[in-house]
User: Fold these one by one.
Assistant:
Number 1:
Amino acid sequence: MLVVPLAGVVGPGGGSLVSNTAMADSEWLRTVPVVDEDEIAELIEGLGSQSYATRVRCRQRLSRIGLAAFDALREARDHPDNEIAIVARKLTSGVEVPWAVSTDSPIVQEILNEYGSRSVLARRQRIGRLAALPTMEAFPALVRLTRYEAEPALSRFAAMALLAQPVRATKELRSEWSTADADAGASGSRDDWLGLSTHDRSLMVMHLQQVFAKDTEFSGQWMLQYASELESGRFEPEGWTELIEAMESSWDIDDGASEQDVARGGIAPGATISGDEMFRLTWLNAERARVLGQTDDASRFFTRHIDVIPPRTRELTDAALWAIDHRLFDVITAAHAKHQSLFEKSPSLMYASAEALLESGQPELAAERTEQALALNPVVNSEDPEEPQLHPVLLESHAEAHLRIAADLIDRGLSDWAEAEYRKLIDELPLHNVESAIARRELAEHLAELQQPAEVVALLQPLVDRMEKDDDFRHKLTAHDFQYQSLRSHLDFQAGLDLANKDDQAAASERMQNAFSMNPENIDILIAMYRLDWNEEWKADVVGQIESVLAEIDEDIEETRQTFRETGNGRPGRQTAIREMLLANFYNQYAWLVSNTEGDFDKALKRSIESLEMSPGSDALLDTCGRCYYAVGNLPAAIVTQRKAVELTPNSPPLRRQLKMFENAWLDANPGMTLKELPEVELPITKASPQELTDRQRRLGVMPPDGPLSFLDN
């Protein structure tokens, strides 16, 4: 019953095809004792013997045999003899499996140390850690866990981790720093399929086919289907459809299942796979098809199995946003048709549906959907006495929901819809209402990014006036993170920009100087003043202020270095993290101010790169670095860096404006050429891993939409 190890496989050139990493599972399998299947069957029957001595002897012998008896013992868990079934369950859950073997890498051995003695949750977390490793390094261990993990849910989790690993690796490969289009020619490549070479895939195919040849569990069937795809180099939707249809009989459709079981996506009585697992597997496979360049297959596959999406707003929203991001609009249409009542009760889902309609060329219908979404969750009670009156706490909750939705719409680049959400709160709620004040502030920030200073002034002036006249109101807003000086400074700054647009130099100068004096940390005010360039006296005064700020930043940098060099309090790891966070901020401030005005551009670029080494993958720091490359005249590097910033925050107006400026500058300097002819550049900038980016978003309190691979991080 043992599978044949891979050690003897020889490649076309006569050399071994098996690397040390891929050999790990084969070496481990060699340690399993070879035992006759008839003997194992006899020993299992002996577990129910009337003789106590026979039962003990059979149990001890099966324990020594270990994994060679795993399949037979797993079947015996449902033995009609309860005594045999009970002992079989204990043996399969308590077999001392050598999860780590000598050919595993040190990190794999560390992760698998005492794996079998840990709780289900701890084992799941360890599988997730394995999935974050390079594909071929973790592959043998994940195969082991998929095949022999006694907890079926963990076995399926390990199987999905195996499916997801190369997808995650490919996304990282396609995020490398290059002027070339990362996706060009990568889709469907048979020589580099999901970041795996033909050589690696051949090893994986043989291994999966041998290890799971006799496995009848769902996870084993998934792995055989995966092996078929590794061999063909394509996602095979029909094979997965057959598996999903076969699993439906074991899904949450048991007659004894309660409505609560179905609603939660939990496993119903008698079922062997949960609705959440079905959803994750289907979504993961759609993502695999998309990453392989089989976009039509991804859309058709997910649409065909739209029933697997749990009838819950969170999962529907996550799937809908994923489909919109990748222009798989048929998925949205199918989900809306299947779950119409849920869509019509959820503003997020209605906006997702409207966005899909807008992107597919149906603006009128999209507008109808946005009106429906905006009308949901009223924030004031109807004046009609016959209408039901909502509790003030519920109305406040509705207002907070509108704020969240508006912020999400801005992130997705749907500015007009976001403004309508903010305006609803501003128009329907009194000025002293906290949610109304927050709506004014957030909309003002967005309109400032869109360079609409007059509209910003109109929003903030009533708020600032009320804060200056009403101490109670001012204290209430302070408790909600409103700072009067910062708000007053921003109002004066935007008023100064508006006056400058009207060529009122005297008034604009006064408002901007006042804005900077109230908030000298906002160096964007100083940059705007520098760009006005009204006269020599004005310019000299602004340059003097810039030099003063740069000197202060240098002092802050030196003080931070000295403080953390001399202070030994706290944990070293935390001290280092705080030091790097502060230094990265100071370096970035210096680089941004100099690159947008004047000074030592080379020093600014050096400090910008150092800030990114301390905090890789920050869109704001990348934006600064792009500006520094522009300042030193390296336009290709500026464009590549700025593209990375835009990739992280694709709908930021300032980031996109700066990218457009860099691209136009390069085109002007290279007449007759196109951006496709941009020369290759190599940048000394640290690239953040997906996990680092997710961790940063969590620290900032911003949770990204749940993606098809996020189950590995939960």
Note: The radius of gyration is 31 Å.
Number 2:
Amino acid sequence: MVPPAQPTPVLSGPPRPRAGGTGATTALPPRPPGANTGSRPALPPEPDEPDFPTERRAANAPVDRRAPPAPATLPSVIIAPQESRERRGPGPSQFTGAEEGRERRGPGPSQFTGAEEGRERRAAPGQPQYNGPDRRGTIAPSASAPYVGPERRAGRRAGEEGAERFWPAQPRTLSETGLTATFVEELVLKALFFAGEMRGMDIAARLQLPTSLVDDIIEGLRRQKYVDIRGGGGSGVGKSTMIYQLTTFVTDVLRQVLDRNRYNGPAPVSFQEYVAAVKQQTVRGNRITRARMQDKFGDLIIKDYIFDGIGPAMNSGRAIFFYGPPGNGKTAICQGMVNCFGGDIFIPHAILIDDFVVRIFDANLHKVVEDEPGAAGSYDRRWVRCRRPLVVVGGELTLEMLDLVYSPEVKYYEAPFQMKASNGMLLIDDFGRQKVSPKDLLNRWIVPLESDIDMLTLHTGKKLQVPFDVFAAFSTNLDPSDLVDDAFLRRVRYKLEVQRPDEDQFHDIFQVMCRKRGVPYDAAAVDYLIDTHYRPVDRPFAACQPRDLLDQVIDMAHYQGIEPRLTPELLDSAVRGYFVRFDKDKSSATSASAG
């Protein structure tokens, strides 16, 4: 008798093409013959992987809370915002157009275009329907709109009536994720390897993919004997509550998977979808007014010329250059500026470029926004809802940090600072004090500032174009004439000097800081400080001095066991410890002017 032919096991069959992907993924090799299961294979362990017053006194000026209009050119995945327009219609009717305040309805599969005033375009009975662009939120592929990834719904930004925004829809099928089955299977295997054993729902939470989608992937791995059920989770019924572990047959396969990369986290999104999201959530084209700005800076005490300087710069969305003496709030002003850009944005945990994973979300830089009640699960959890970021880099900045950072140990990339600041603000603080020369650093920024495109390089040598949608700010307390040239000044159109506060502002800042620190404000004590320790030695004011001196007063009062108050004795003690200058020609230190 001829024995029956044994089927050759495969992990997932031929890899399905990744929607919008840029490379192919090698399918996992077949398992060894046999059907026994065992414990988790032993493999090598994974390698280790401005405090300044920023609030402004309440202003009585009215606040314009209208959302900024959408950019003139929208990505293909979003329906263009239309004011006062109702989009309805039975059946699969689709609508577009330019009429303000008009409702366009039509039964059945009628299609409409808005080039003709008050006219419908319907296909005659028995004739094929209009085969133009799909108006449900995506546009048919063309030279001007190459993106072909999963469809994304357009939603409304909370608190901004009538404003359209990028909203990543929850994927319902594997093809809508833009990933291949093989790639998701590798993520499941790595999650089980690093955790030892996991419930199905925990694997789905690790990958940030729908439970039903992950259950299908796990079931395929079970049929190939790479994953086995250890037992129930003890709560509920169904696949998602089952506890899974790896078998001994996955050892060779898993070694190859870990050799490719050791990324163990949420599933990435496609690079094309990321580019489309950045364009839709652009920081350009704002309409920021003076009234709106005054409500965003809190208790920060700044002069009117500051508002008049930064407002137009933010509307341009390009770049601004701050210069002036240290300690006068350049960094704090930038923190207030980022609050003026309306709305929150979606940032992906990671993106996929040519089968290489690039991590973007950074918990240290991105502030997560809590979902509204009932919003959980209403969008793709591979994206994180965040405030527009403010990324600050200082003297530690090098040219290498402005490119994709590849780790040969874990074999995936970390996005550079400017990529993490997309749709937000990037502040290059202490400009001129970096290890790299100012000229080289400026040459690195000239092209992105001019073209809104940044060129990054993979470790394979491939060049990659990514959107540079960042409001860049340069800040320095050095002489600008020693740092910048005409080419840089031409591309950074807005230059603003942050001056020292005058005496009245010095009092105002002291009052704000006393309220924040819980110390009674005494104008006479501040006058004593100025008359005794500022005027006699021509000491200049600085916006940071009230905060620093008050903190020293509080420390000294606690040391003496008394209530912190602005008294001459405590102020004298604070001045002696704060204002010092070390004379190079003498061994003693004498009190002198700061700055």
Note: The radius of gyration is 30 Å.
